[in-house]
Amino acid sequence: MDRPIEPSDPRAHVGVGCLSCHAVRSSTPDGNGSYVLAADAVPIPEPDDEASLERHRAFMGPARDQCASCHRAFIGVETGHPHHLGGTDDPGPWLDSSYAGNKLRLDTPVSERHCVDCHMPREIDDFGGLPDPAIDADGGLRSHRFLGGHSWLAAMRGDAETLGRVQAFLQGVASVDIAAVELGGHRHLLGEGLKPAQLKGRVTVDLVVRNLAVGHRFPGGTRDAQDTWLSLRVLDRDGRELASLDETHGQVHRLRTGVVDGEGKLVSAREVERLRAVAFDHTIGPRDAVVVRYAVALPEGLESAGPLRIEARLLHRSRTLELADLTCAESKSKQGRAFLRASERLLGQRLDPCVDLPVTEVARHVIELGSESPASEQRPAHERLWELGIALDHQVQERLPEAREALDAALARVEAPDFCDRTGLSPAERDHARARILAALGSVAARQGRVDEALDLADQVAALLPEHPYPHLLRGRALAKVWRWAQAVPHLERALAASPRSPTLAAELALAL
Fold first, then answer.
1. Looking at the domain assignment, is residue 164 inside a domain?
2. Cis peptide before 219 (omega within 30 of 0)
3. According to the model, what pLDDT value does residue 127 have?
4. 250 burial via Cβ count (<10 Å: 0-12, 13-18, 19+)
5. Which residues of the chain have pLDDT under 50?
């Protein structure tokens, strides 16, 4: 890397090959390719020679533990920057998550999953009738498609099949919910209780976005180059658009990390040499939720327009338009054209870096206001209110009463005498839902410095779920918030004992000590 790379150099076109992972002999989670790669010749297997197959398997080995060494990255003085700056970090959030077996949140149950369980699932196929010793007894093989969010790369290749797989993979990994509506200074949780005569003026909605099925932050990878946003439309009963917020009209909220240069200007085209500091991170951790508040002005005279339909969409594009424009321009330069010609010659692959970036709808939610009930394909009300509460818990102190309001409403639903009959949930499921809501209320109380209330709520959670370690964490955090460090330490130690691989929890305990 100490001289210009020639377009004709085959190494510039290999990408991540088999040996990039399978020849790794050891690795650490430090990042930037923190592994030791074997230089030995690969023993080539003979299909009819079991001994040679075993030698090949032993050399190639399982590669699942190598992910973190490259999917964590940083820049620093070694890369010509003035100081250390962390970048891509997918293993860190995963280690803190329920998918890694940690108990930092009281959540609906999820199965533990490793990187390969999502990005390299087993595929059942005849694989063209080819005999392959890697195929298991059920006819399955670990997929090496590495599906993620790279819809643009598939489009560049003109690969409609892979693009379809990527978009199907993304759909439903996160949710969007229209969880509260404010009109005329009155706030309506879940949009309930609105009359047609109230549907006028300025309407404000709380959109809750939850990371449902991504084991790292959503969106992940190079988060400063990601382009995921929320759009909103308000329609009348005849389907006419009355107001909207999208890329072409108004400002939209984007789920991305903002990195700035030395002058504090946002860098949106991935010019790594300019990166100096992270200004914000609007991505969402595993199983977590955030709330985004949108407001639009409705036209006058809507009293006779009948019920209104509000539609929210969560949309994903794998890279920013600024980065796409820069990539397209570079591909038209003399050097860019040379690399494209070499790709076609060496790989038989024609690339179009100027292709339009695909947009994928990850999630959609629709409610109808002003009818008997806000009709939607909604989940149970107590779950939606709980998600609104945990999302609002991330907001500034002044917004925490809104989190309490949502969680109190969720608790009232769960504690209603007919809850099990109405929802079809068992008493055990009811108790688990109640514990989750109480845990979220405890987190709000801790943030507000109401330590005694938080401790009492932790006791209530422990009574409902005596085997779960979250009450220890809630007690430790509540005490730490009011600088009662010595009292916090034993609780944080118990919490860490239950989640020993959590970087966040280890840091909290270190601070308390």
1. no
2. yes
3. 60
4. middle
5. none
Q: Residues with Cβ < 8 Å from 87, sequence gap 6 or more?
A: 73, 74, 75, 222
Which residue from 120, 128, 230 is spatially nearest to 169, judged by alpha carbons? 120
Confirm whether pTM is higher than 0.85. Answer: yes
Structural domain includes residue 71: no
Q: What total of structural domains would you count in the chain? A: 1
Instruction: Specify which residues 210 forms β-bridges with.
Output: 175, 289
Q: What is the pLDDT of residue 370?
A: 81
Q: Is 222 in contact with 270 (CB distance < 8 Å)?
A: yes
Domain range for 140 is 114-144
**Does residue 124 lie within any of the structural domains?**
yes
Q: Is position 130 within any domain?
A: yes
pLDDT confidence of residue 3 = 85
Here the tokens at position 209 are 């976005």
């990539």: which residue's tokens?
327
Q: Is 33 helix (H, G, I), strand (E, B) or coil?
A: coil
Distance CA 215, CA 152 (A): 22
Q: What letter does residue 457 receive in the DSSP assignment?
A: H
Torsion of CA 412, 414, 417, 422, to 10 degrees: 120
What is the C-alpha separation between 245 and 253, in angstroms, rounded?
10
